[in-house]
Each structure stands twice: as C-alpha cells, then as structure tokens.
Amino acid sequence: MADLASALDRTLPVPLGIQLRGLIEFGISLGEMLPGQKLPSVRELADRAGIAPMTVANVYQELRKSGLIEAKPGAGTYVSDGRTRDGLRSSAMRKIQRRIDALFNEAEELGLSPAVISSLVNARAARGRPPAKLMQIVIVGHFLDTTQQYADRIREHLGPDDSIAITTLSALQAGEPLPLPCDLCVTFPHRRSEVENLVPANTPIVNLSFIPAEETRARLAIIDPMAKIGIVSIFPEFMALMKPGVLRFTPHVSEVEVRLITEPDLIEFLKTVDVLVYASGAEPILKDFPDGREAIEFRYVPDPHAVRQILLPEIERLRSAHSAKEEKTE
C-alpha cells in the first residue's frame, strides 16, 4: 500500500487525485490489489502522499460508487469482495476435481481403465439432461484490436461451439447494441459499473484481471541500459502507473519519461527518445516516431489464473443453470 503514495508523480500534467484513482483502479484490474485487501485510511494515505485528505476522500467516494472498494463500519476501507462468490464457486470446482481424481484412483486399483470410467461419467451426465447450452460471450474493452486479442486468448479455453464476440465501451456509450445475444459479459473491474448501465438488465458480468504480455516483458528486459525510454499513455489516470509498470521489467534503465498522447509537444518528445513504450490504442503516434528506433507496445493479456478460476467456473455455472431450467420445463 505504500506504493500508492510513492507512485504519485508530481512531474506529470495530471492531478494527483486522478493519478491515485487510476493506480487503485488499475491495481485491481491487474489483480495486484486483491478482494478483501485493506486500504489505508483517508488520513493515513493523505499523510503518506502529501496531499489533501479531501482529495483522498473524493477518490475513495468515486471508487465506492463504482463498486471497486467498500467501507466496513468500524473496520476501514477494503477492495470490494464482489468476486467472493466467484471465489467460492472456484473452490467448489476444486473440491469436485479432487473427488474426480479419487474416483479415477479407485478405478485404477480395481483394474478399470480411465476410458471406462470416463464413459460412465459421461453417460451419467447425459442421462435425462438436455444438450449442454452453447454459451455466447461478449468482451467489452477499450479498443477493438486489443479486445480481439483478449477474445482470441479466452477462446482457447472455451468449448468448440461456444461463441465469443467483442465490442468497446465507447460503442456501447454511442448506443450500439451488443454484437450477439449475450449469456455472459466480460470486462475490466474498473469498468464494470459503466458496462452494467449499458447492457440489458440482468446480463451476467464477470470482472477479469490482466497481466503484461510475455512478449512485452521480454522486449523490455533487453533494452540497452543507456537508452532513453519514452512512455506514452492514453488515459491520464494511468500515467502514474505506466512508469513503474515499465521500470518493473527495465530496472537497469535510468532515463525514463512519460507523456500523455494529447500533449502538444508529443512529436518533439518522440524525437528525443531511443525506445518508445506506448499504451495499446496509441498506435497512431508511430507515424511520428523516427525510423530505425524501437517501439514497444505495452500490451496486456487476460490473466490465465483469472480465466481458469473465475471465468470458466462462471461459464459452467450459467450453463448448468440453463440446463436445469430446461429440465423443469420439460
């Protein structure tokens, strides 16, 4: 939590309150701030960061409204445990997995092959049940290209006949409908409340955390120690987070500067750096970046642990609920 205060950068042209909100929002999105984790009190964080308590109080109020954090009377402020239900569901899945393992171990002791047990289990699952529902999933992101990359990663974990489509927050805000009838919507934790207000009522929504892509981490790690790195961010609230995010993989580099994509001196700034690290969605600036220099997209991918422990159990829960509903109507 001390990193929240130390990561605020007074050299950036972004108010400290916006930086603080972005640090917390993105920390939750990346799974670095976990559900149930306690936040510093308003006074404590204000003292550490050297900012007005009212600034911290306003940030906390905005985050509470968006459902990312929650105040517990007499206990303090915590990262929202809205995903607790998903965690419990994941725990139940692990419990069943252990029982399945025990079943196959017992079968082996009795001389029965795994194929025989699999056939029995499949027959039991199919007995008197309708065909499994094919799920239609929509991912809501910021930019079409990067959201499609998220969808491609997630598709690897889905059933062969399940559908996955993409849209953007700006498209929904412009009144565009979802690209297909949606059984489940996937988005960033810090955008969930906005998405809830833009999709049909009662649409299930899952928060998914993200991590830096392996290629991004590898390319940052081999940057020349003497190089000057220029970082370009799209969203003001995430400027304070991009610099430590890059430095995490380039601790050997000492000269790093950050700019917002809308700053008037951006083109001149690009001419002064050896390596450009840019946020996904900022590709248009590459036309102004000198030839022969390295440009690295700071790209994120869905956290595979979150996919397995949160998204997939929710998909199976919805699939099972639909099957149970079909059974009752027969």
From TrEMBL:
CDD domains: WHTH_GntR. PROSITE patterns: HTH_GNTR (PS50949). Pfam families: GntR (PF00392). Keywords: DNA-binding, Transcription, Transcription regulation. It comes from the Bacteria. Residues 14-82 form the HTH gntR-type domain. SUPFAM superfamilies: Winged helix' DNA-binding domain. InterPro entries: Tscrpt_reg_HTH_GntR, WH-like_DNA-bd_sf, WH_DNA-bd_sf. PANTHER family: HTH-TYPE TRANSCRIPTIONAL REPRESSOR YTRA. This is GntR family transcriptional regulator. It comes from Microvirga puerhi.
